[in-house]
Write a structure and sequence with these properties.
The longest helix is centred in the last third of the chain and has 25 residues, at about 65-90. The protein has helices at about 1-10, 10-20, 25-35, 50-55, 65-90. Helix 3 (about 25-35) crosses helix 5 (about 65-90). It has about 90 residues and is an all-alpha fold. The protein has one domain.
Length: about 90
């Protein structure tokens, strides 16, 4: 058990990125389906990024409350991911 705990402490950043990244696929899929207005799972593997990026940064559907809620949640999620990367890359770690 000590070996497992030591491995987790030694690789804490990889464990943290893995744990935080697990739900990313679900949230991104939900967001993309809303942005591209489809229920097809194939949207997750298509290389469409422009509309998704505009929807994340801007306000693609200002009247759609579900989109706004999902967009704001996804923004916070991605921001925390960026903060983790910044901390990982910082010389203070």
């Amino acid at each position: 058990m000590k070996a497992v705990f030591d491995w987790i402490i030694e690789n804490k950043w990889y464990v943290l990125f893995f744990v935080w990244g697990l739900p990313l696929g679900y949230y991104r899929s939900k967001f993309r389906k809303r942005v591209y207005e489809t229920d097809s799972w194939t949207i997750n593997v298509k290389p469409y990024f422009l509309k998704e990026t505009r929807a994340l940064i801007g306000n693609l559907f200002p009247e759609d409350k579900e989109y706004l809620k999902l967009r704001n949640f996804y923004r916070v999620y991605v921001t925390i991911y960026l903060i983790l990367f910044a901390l990982w890359l910082s010389p203070l770690r």
